Amino acid sequence: MKSLEVTLRELRDSGRKALVPYFMAGVTPDWTQHVAAAVLGGADAIEIGIPFSDPMMDGIVIQRAAERSLEAGTTLDSICAQLSARDLGAPLIAMTYYNLFHHYGLRRAAGLLAQGGVVGAIVPDLTLEESDEWREVCDETDIATIFLVAPSTTEDRFARLAQATQGFCYASARMAVTGRAQGAGDATRVVEAVRATSDVPTYVGIGITSPQQAREATEHSDGVIVGSALVETILKGASPADTEAFIRTFRSVIDE
Amino acid sequence: MKSLEVTLRELRDSGRKALVPYFMAGVTPDWTQHVAAAVLGGADAIEIGIPFSDPMMDGIVIQRAAERSLEAGTTLDSICAQLSARDLGAPLIAMTYYNLFHHYGLRRAAGLLAQGGVVGAIVPDLTLEESDEWREVCDETDIATIFLVAPSTTEDRFARLAQATQGFCYASARMAVTGRAQGAGDATRVVEAVRATSDVPTYVGIGITSPQQAREATEHSDGVIVGSALVETILKGASPADTEAFIRTFRSVIDE
Amino acid sequence: MSQNPVYMGAPSSTGRFGDFGGRFVPEALMPACLELEAAFIDAWSDPVFIDEYRSVLQEFGGRPTPVTYLGRFSKLFGVEVFAKREDLAHTGSHKINNVVGQTLLTRRMGKTRVIAETGAGQHGVATATAAARLGLECTVFMGELDTQRQVLNVFRMELLGSKVVAVTSGSRTLKDAVNEAMREWVSCVQDTHYCLGSVMGPHPFPWMVREFQSIIGQEAEEQLRLRGVGVPDMVVACVGGGSNAAGIFAGFANSSARLVGVEAAGGAAVTNGSPGILHGMKSMLIQSEHGQIEEAHSISAGLDYPGIGPEHAYLAASGRAEYVSIGDEDVLVALQTLSELEGIIPALESAHAVAWIMQEAGLAIPRGSTVLLNLSGRGDKDVAQVRDILRGRE
Amino acid sequence: MSQNPVYMGAPSSTGRFGDFGGRFVPEALMPACLELEAAFIDAWSDPVFIDEYRSVLQEFGGRPTPVTYLGRFSKLFGVEVFAKREDLAHTGSHKINNVVGQTLLTRRMGKTRVIAETGAGQHGVATATAAARLGLECTVFMGELDTQRQVLNVFRMELLGSKVVAVTSGSRTLKDAVNEAMREWVSCVQDTHYCLGSVMGPHPFPWMVREFQSIIGQEAEEQLRLRGVGVPDMVVACVGGGSNAAGIFAGFANSSARLVGVEAAGGAAVTNGSPGILHGMKSMLIQSEHGQIEEAHSISAGLDYPGIGPEHAYLAASGRAEYVSIGDEDVLVALQTLSELEGIIPALESAHAVAWIMQEAGLAIPRGSTVLLNLSGRGDKDVAQVRDILRGRE
Ligand SMILES: Cc1ncc(COP(=O)(O)O)c(C=O)c1O
Ligand SMILES: Cc1ncc(COP(=O)(O)O)c(C=O)c1O
Which residues pair with D234 in a beta bridge? Predict the structure, then answer.
């Protein structure tokens, strides 16, 4: 079992609902400080978005963040170098599209991530069927491969994805890309479908924009992922302190 | 034999080359004074252009004159009324397109012309083949039907046209509409082709713009028609006195 | 025993259809008209020529064009409408049929150049196209106003190697372009053929152009027959000069089908005109009380003509065909309706025929009738204009 | 005994053509891709479906399109060129073949709506057309820049009853329109089919679109055979995503004909690209050293795509087909040359293939070779742009 999953299972067993914010790497020069602030504010793990020119699964907010980051010259190397320069105090999970890893070479990409302290990877356009190679490479490191399930996922796929995912299972609350819809949507049904075949921690994402929604989502799941809502504040100029406060609010409402 | 032909044959027999200027009726309020001036200057007969919206055989100068005349409200009635008001001192030959006569009704049109003292008609889009009705109507009056021949006319047609034409035969010097080309062109050949089958007076037109050209054309023919060159001066504001001078110049060069 | 007259055969030897047609041209053009008549009669009875004409239309022109059943349109209006798809012919309308025939004839007559008139540019582009294919020189006359309204069609002709001459006389539109082409023809009959764009002009043009277009009706007749529809109750086509209508009527002239020609309300020569002589022919014309030809006005440049081909004048006079008219507003609605229901954007010209069917379904067209609609051209040429009109209203 | 590989059959069960293809989509779309794959396999072995597909293409789409011998062009360049005339298909290009297939499949799957991406608007107009015919709702995604460059095509789609959404992300062109259509599809897979416009995207799209386009090659093969030309020495087509090329290659994949795909120099995914993953497929892509997809640049919007269909990547890798590229200047000259010599104004896309033939006649194409050129579309959509460019130089 990958270390990420060990950590997240322990978290669940401790009774704490996981709060996983998403940051776009390189979107501002001080982005790692935002990450550190989020950890201070109560984040349990961090999703690190690695910008890609064609983010098929992302809505307008994360697209803009990716564009801004790419314009600033961000690359996979530069991100991993920045990450390896400091310990951010929580498990880091990379989130990006498969072309980047493919282009760098899977082994080289995984090596860079591992050097940056990354312990998990979400690759939304990498289907289970196409993932063998990547998973083998990850298994040479401690990087967990995290799969998504969606409201449209069929029964047999729920089973296979829940078996295959490592660390946690990412349950899309809705049929939507990031930042498009709001609220828990079909989360309960999706989470239950995963639980029916696996006891892997299951987090709800896509559409969680308010602390209240996060709280509702954790009522039937093990944690939440907060993406566009947070990225938007950073695009609008939030400071690391603002980010800490943002996360703290979510934390406290979830923990109420 | 129509009176026009009698007159023109006498003219030829007298050794004088005919000079036939063309005027666009109604182009200026004083157009009939231009006609009278031309007769004073030495014109032997007058072509009276009756404006038509679609003058297929006319170049840009006569088109513009027709447009101007139509804008001023000229109609076949108004022209004939003006003509019947005074004796202009020379045979008048109407020149227009067949639709006008057809629209008025052939008999009515011919009647109006006759009342206006018109003794001949040139209808360039009325082919010999389509002319029976019109000729019959004209034969109820003293209006001569004048046909054109052209450089493209074939031998058999030369014969038939020269037989059919009354008053004179209009020999196009060139394959062109009025006011397009200059000089005598194929005139000699065309005139000779007419003469080979008929002794009707034969006048050269289309392309006669200078007294010198007129003179050359009359060397092998019985007369000339001067159209666009004259109309252009009137469009540019020539007075009846100018017109008289214009004609006088042609007359004297022709008679030299 | 009374004999039914035979419609749409050859005209009289003087080019008459009943009282209409004939030949009213300057003597300078008579030999060319006679030469053309002889050449056409000769060619049209020569299997080699006919073969080439047909195979060029097939291999180059995209014939046969299909007949499309307009399912959703038919359902909505309660009549069974089949569209003959001239919009799919090369250059986007039926005009190609005629120019392929005439350019082949040009070459056969040993001439090396064609001239043509054009309104919106459809016939000009078609002529430029057929001329390019044969390497004939080509000059197109176009009213100055039209050259400004249709800059892209001017450029298209130039791309195809033709020269476009802007005509500055008269109303500076189609009627004047015809005049100017005739004038030009006078000066170059020797080596030049005047490739007239519709069933108009002096004999043999109305007959010849109809013959070159009758492939539309022949195909449609066979297509409907093979598909079990048989003779339709009605054949409907728009009428400018009348070539697409003549072409499709030709396939049904002596059948039981009612023939309906739809003119633009602002250029309805049959409804509002009277007999007269223009452009070498005797036909129905819109003219003033003093016999001056009036300007037509239509949203569709191709119907913006104050006359109609002489054979139509005859078909109207004899009662064999009916002629109706449709205004600009209804045309716009028809264009939109056919686009949305059937995925076919018709030319504004063709939309006149569509509009009449929409207007008369259940009235002049009994419910359940089978209607053959001639979709004479595609609307691509018109979308900029339609957009401007519709946007201007928002 | 060594066996020749069979080209252009079905891909592997995971949608691979050699190393290329596959399915790289969000999990949310996987069920839809699987459903589509099953539906296509079922439909494509159902004679009733195939019959309807073919008869719609015939009666509505204008098929078969002819093969035209380019006589004057051939003479000038010393090679025998035959053009497959997709420019004569309804809506002006081969795109109609694909959308007729996909919209019929949409209805068969019980879905009531389609979405599509479009660059210049050709595929958008085609989709809007086929959707209108079946009464399907239709939304087309188009880069904001493209909506500005192609206002008339936007209006055309609207006339056809479609909604056009301007995509404001990324480079605001075709690539981003695909991303946005995929995103939209995630939120509406239930009732909506994504009608992809080329042989790209996740399995089964590259295969399915090729199958729907292979009617081009089948027809051409038969047409050349019946006319005694037989198998041509070479088959040449332009390549954006690669659907028209795949369609015509399909008729000759296992023949002796050389297959040549012509990319735009500014979007030459085979020549200048490297393997990567985009828009659901693994293929050759133009990308930066850091793995970011680059923008393509071409005078022709339809070739302005940084990738190529995966089967082409495979045909290139296996050596069965050659891929070359042509720059904007040569394309302009080719467009003018074909227009003047043959009376066919090609689409800028298709003019790439023409330009390559002009460039290589007597060189890579031996004198006297028979060449089948896929004239994928007509240039009417491009004349305004070409005019602006040429006028700008005067
Ligand atoms: C598409 C289309 N339909 C009809 C016409 C009218 O001509 P005709 O009445 O000769 O068919 C035109 C003329 O340009 C046209 O382009
Ligand atoms: C006429 C034409 N040809 C070619 C293409 C390129 O697409 P593909 O490579 O899929 O045939 C397009 C795309 O819009 C097109 O419109």
Answer: D258, D371
